[in-house]
Each structure stands twice: as C-alpha cells, then as structure tokens.
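Hi R.,

Here's the chain you asked about this morning:
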Amino acid sequence: MESFFYTSGSFDSETELRELILRRYHSLSILRELSVIEFAELVIYAKYKEREERIYTQWCAMLPTLNKYISYEQFKDMITGANIDMRPTEEIMAEIEELHRQKGRTDGT
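And here is the predicted structure, written out as tokens:
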C-alpha cells in the first residue's frame, strides 16, 4: 500500500490519473467493481507498465546509434539504476585493490 502513495504522488492531477487508466484499460467502469486495494494495485501496475514501455521505446530508438549492442535488460538496468553497486566504498576499493594485486601476479609485474 505504501507504494500506492508513492505512485499516486507522482500524478499532477486527478485528470492525469484518469488518463492513465483510460489509456491502459479503456474504461473507467472497471473501477466500480474494484476494492480500494485492487484499485491501488491497478494504478501501481499501470505506472510500472508505462515506465517499462517508455524505457523500451527509448532503447529501440537508441539501438541504431549505439557503438556496441547492449540487451534491453542491460539498458533497463542502466536507466533504472539497478546495476549500481550499493556496497560501502571501502568494500569496493578493497575489491579493486585485490584485483590489481592478482593482475600484478599474472602479468609478472
């Protein structure tokens, strides 16, 4: 339910919410049959799918201009930040130093 409040806060107006529902489901009459929880889940899912479609369209548009091919999943992770390493800086730096030490052993330097 918390994600509903987060999602609903992203609408500028009630009109924008209606437009989203009509665009995805083509009728407001479906709302009469839903509980509040179901309505909230519907809105969250509609916003999620809208974002997915926008990212996919962006990937399709950029694909011809990319220097190297990246899959849709890689592109989506890059756009959404899912590929960001959230470990503490010290842990990442220790891993980098360890990789440099290992590389030095294999290169003979």
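One quick note: The chain has a mean pLDDT of 82.

Cheers,
M.
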